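Why does residue order matter? Because the sequence determines the fold. Keep that principle in mind as you read this record.
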Amino acid sequence: MFRMTYHIEVGGMVLPLLASAKIRKDVKSLSDTATIICPAVSHFRPLAFVQNVKKGQRVSIALGYDDNNRQEFDGFVKSVALDDNQLTIECEDPLYVFRRVDIPNGEKTNVTLKQLLEYVLGEVNAYIRSEGLGEPLKLNCLYDYGYKTFRFVNATAYDFMDQIQKEGKPNIFIS
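Structure:
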């Protein structure tokens, strides 16, 4: 018989107890999400872990059987809620960071999709370095169609990616 196991880290802290973990991955969606639910109290005592979970922290979820866990999700804490002695941690993949990065207004002409994505990723990685959020992100995009003109005004890096996703529906992977 198999025993389900997990290893979940939030902000470098290992999650001591788990009620449930739900991961949503969909190629049609711009970002992947996860919801972690864990008790906030054990043996009538509050868990120290609960006070240390903060929005923006790195999250890593590995799931498996008999301690043979496989990495299933990497991202950031999007929100934290404490209700009825239960902690709910909503997470988003690296696109969470894209929401915090403003892209200067402008336009690119005669540019490929890959060049646009590398430009945005460069802005995001500069933010990651300046904020000490870990390793820079990497791009995997097999599409190389072009744009005669691509305009962006008052956009975050997420808005930029959303516009590209809506227009061409390319499969883009950022890790």
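The chain has a mean pLDDT of 89.
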